[in-house]
From TrEMBL:
DNA repair enzyme that has both DNA N-glycosylase activity and AP-lyase activity. The DNA N-glycosylase activity releases various damaged pyrimidines from DNA by cleaving the N-glycosidic bond, leaving an AP (apurinic/apyrimidinic) site. The AP-lyase activity cleaves the phosphodiester bond 3' to the AP site by a beta-elimination, leaving a 3'-terminal unsaturated sugar and a product with a terminal 5'-phosphate. InterPro entries: DNA_glycosylase (IPR011257), Endonuclease3_FeS-loop_motif (IPR003651), Endouclease-III_FeS-bd_BS (IPR004035), HhH-GPD_domain (IPR003265), HhH_base_excis_C (IPR023170), HhH_motif (IPR000445), Nth (IPR005759). It catalyses: 2'-deoxyribonucleotide-(2'-deoxyribose 5'-phosphate)-2'-deoxyribonucleotide-DNA = a 3'-end 2'-deoxyribonucleotide-(2,3-dehydro-2,3-deoxyribose 5'-phosphate)-DNA + a 5'-end 5'-phospho-2'-deoxyribonucleoside-DNA + H(+). One of its GO terms (molecular function) is 4 iron, 4 sulfur cluster binding. Binds 1 [4Fe-4S] cluster. Its EC number is 4.2.99.18. [4Fe-4S] cluster binds at C190, C197, C200, C206. Signal peptide: none annotated. This is Endonuclease III. It comes from Halonatronomonas betaini.
Amino acid sequence: MEKNLDEKLNFVIDILGDKYPAPETELNHDSPFELLVATILSAQTTDVQVNKVTEELFKEYDSPDDFARLSPNELADKIKSIGLYRNKSKFIVESSRIILADFDGQVPRNFSDLLKLPGVGRKTASVVLVGAFSTPAFPVDTHVFRVSNRLGLASSDRVEEVEEQLKDLIPEELWADMHHWLIFHGREVCKARSPKCEICRLKNYCNYYQKKGG
DNA sequence: AACTCGGGGCA
DNA sequence: TGCCCAGAGTT
């Protein structure tokens, strides 16, 4: 028997009141620009790796000006320890140049301008808005997408729709906590490949677990 | 809608 | 050691 949405949501919110381990899911940064770079670097890779590379990078460079002067190849050499480094180097150098040319050297503070930067899609833009400018947004990455769908907090194969459903369902003051929890839960428990349903506190509320025959 | 970029983690 | 994982751009 499927529980209703409010009941599920309230149960998750109860859990948020408890202590749950804070994993390395945060991108460290000292400036909006550093967060932007870290977030572009983070596509398809883990935050732990990205934090290491970003920290090294920003010992040597820190402004859009510094990065705009680099050649993509030069930058690529410095970020080889993470994947997709040629693309990411081009994105970062080009984004830096656009920031200088079109945005007065400042990282844009709104969604549509952020999307004009190469390497910045809806997930990256949302992460920057929340992390650098405390603007309410709900970055839907694969963890948020998978967990929300499995649990039944959302139901769609389109990220945009999942984002809308979650924002409708969850009170705005809880967006940050819920987002953090969904990512934590997706990484540690509700994993893509072999989810640890047996230790999941939400299994009795979970569509995926019910369907599995748990 | 499918393909590409790429290294790190884990079976 | 080969398969799986994590976004954005291009064709």
